[in-house]
């Protein structure tokens, strides 16, 4: 988080839900200098509250109503399936205090969130990912028409603490953002698992295979983000004609990797739409 000249200039942020995604965001914010006293967390699971207190020294509460006391920014980080109930608990205070509600929930739309919080509420949808924990996340953002410039700035500043942010002007695209970058780390972890397992099958010790696969993914990601070359160009530079890479790439292409990735991302995008539809009246 950008360090304000006076730490009390930063808004008090209430996290509703202290699970995996909240933990990644809180960890990233604290590592970048956010004041733990200005981050409040509602989490019903006592063990998760204890871990958040121990690791980040943030005040934790069993209920959402306690956590939002004095908070002008709410970060809703519960599962899509329980979002409506959680918003229902917060409706009176949302209508009185007029916070900006930032939701990281997949699929749930800004109009659903605004309605569930009593109507006419400033809502920002954010789709971060778990590399946020290491400050290496990326977040897609969408703001509804009720948000003002200060609230959009607050949302962007909060998420900028854990990696770059990208504003989306068409809310319908948030499901595609979710499918590419929200869920994306899991695809990379799946690839890492498969590379490690295949390396072990070819005779490498497990630790060695893990180190080789992990550092290769890190190095390739650094080239993708730091060099001014496309993924296709970088791939071609590894692929010597008639060499080992060509043998592997041809196997991937023959196996339909591109179509498989397309089908996977289409399925994730559609699941986002279903999560929204399942929560409509
Ligand atoms: N895990 C990920 O990589 C990402 C998750 N998201 C979104 O983040 C949200 C949370 O996902 P995860 O952190 O993975 O799930 P999670 O299950 O780890 O965390 C949700 C937490 O909410 C708590 N909770 C349930 N009812 C509550 C209530 N009434 N008040 C306060 N807290 C309550 C649960 O005890 C749980 O710890 C989801 O909506 C998901 O779509 C978005 C981007 C990436
Ligand atoms: O799997 C999910 O639904 C959430 C949203 C993006 C990553 N995890």
Automatic annotation (TrEMBL):
<dbReference type="InterPro" id="IPR053790">
    <property type="entry name" value="P5CR-like_CS"/>
</dbReference>
<dbReference type="InterPro" id="IPR000304">
    <property type="entry name" value="Pyrroline-COOH_reductase"/>
</dbReference>
<comment type="similarity">
    <text>Belongs to the pyrroline-5-carboxylate reductase family.</text>
</comment>
<dbReference type="InterPro" id="IPR029036">
    <property type="entry name" value="P5CR_dimer"/>
</dbReference>
<dbReference type="Pfam" id="PF03807">
    <property type="entry name" value="F420_oxidored"/>
</dbReference>
<feature type="domain" description="Pyrroline-5-carboxylate reductase dimerisation">
    <location>
        <begin position="171"/>
        <end position="275"/>
    </location>
</feature>
<dbReference type="InterPro" id="IPR028939">
    <property type="entry name" value="P5C_Rdtase_cat_N"/>
</dbReference>
<dbReference type="InterPro" id="IPR036291">
    <property type="entry name" value="NAD(P)-bd_dom_sf"/>
</dbReference>
<keyword id="KW-0521">NADP</keyword>
<keyword id="KW-0963">Cytoplasm</keyword>
<dbReference type="GO" id="GO:0004735">
    <property type="term" value="F:pyrroline-5-carboxylate reductase activity"/>
</dbReference>
<keyword id="KW-0560">Oxidoreductase</keyword>
<comment type="function">
    <text>Catalyzes the reduction of 1-pyrroline-5-carboxylate (PCA) to L-proline.</text>
</comment>
<comment type="pathway">
    <text>Amino-acid biosynthesis; L-proline biosynthesis; L-proline from L-glutamate 5-semialdehyde: step 1/1.</text>
</comment>
<dbReference type="InterPro" id="IPR008927">
    <property type="entry name" value="6-PGluconate_DH-like_C_sf"/>
</dbReference>
<dbReference type="Pfam" id="PF14748">
    <property type="entry name" value="P5CR_dimer"/>
</dbReference>
<keyword id="KW-0641">Proline biosynthesis</keyword>
<protein>
    <recommendedName>
        <fullName>Pyrroline-5-carboxylate reductase</fullName>
        <ecNumber>1.5.1.2</ecNumber>
    </recommendedName>
</protein>
<feature type="domain" description="Pyrroline-5-carboxylate reductase catalytic N-terminal">
    <location>
        <begin position="13"/>
        <end position="107"/>
    </location>
</feature>
<keyword id="KW-0028">Amino-acid biosynthesis</keyword>
């Amino acid at each position: 988080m950008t360090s304000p000249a006076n730490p009390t200039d930063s808004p008090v942020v209430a996290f509703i839900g202290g699970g995996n995604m909240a933990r990644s965001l809180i960890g990233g914010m604290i590592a970048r200098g956010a004041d733990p006293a200005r981050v409040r967390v509602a989490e019903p699971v006592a063990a998760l509250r204890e871990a958040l207190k121990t690791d980040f020294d943030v005040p934790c509460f069993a209920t959402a109503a306690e956590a939002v006391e004095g908070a002008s920014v709410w970060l809703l980080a519960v599962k899509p399936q329980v979002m409506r109930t959680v918003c229902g608990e917060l409706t009176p205070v949302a209508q009185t205090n007029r916070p900006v509600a930032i939701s990281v929930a997949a699929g749930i739309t800004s109009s659903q969130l605004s309605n569930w919080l009593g109507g006419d509420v400033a809502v920002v949808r954010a789709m971060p990912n778990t590399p946020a924990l290491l400050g290496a996340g990326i977040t897609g953002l969408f703001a509804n028409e009720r948000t003002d410039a200060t609230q959009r700035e607050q949302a962007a500043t909060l998420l900028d603490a854990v990696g770059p942010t990208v504003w989306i002007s068409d809310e319908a695209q948030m499901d595609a953002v979710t499918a590419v970058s929200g869920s994306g780390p899991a695809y990379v972890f799946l690839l890492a698992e498969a590379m490690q397992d295949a390396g072990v099958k070819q005779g490498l010790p497990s630790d060695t295979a893990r180190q080789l696969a992990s550092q290769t993914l890190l190095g390739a990601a650094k080239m993708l983000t730091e060099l001014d070359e496309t993924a296709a160009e970088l791939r071609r530079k590894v692929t010597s004609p008639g060499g080992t890479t060509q043998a592997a790439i041809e196997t991937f292409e023959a196996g339909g990797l591109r179509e498989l990735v397309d089908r996977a991302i289409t399925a994730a995008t559609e699941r986002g739409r279903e999560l929204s539809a399942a929560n409509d009246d």
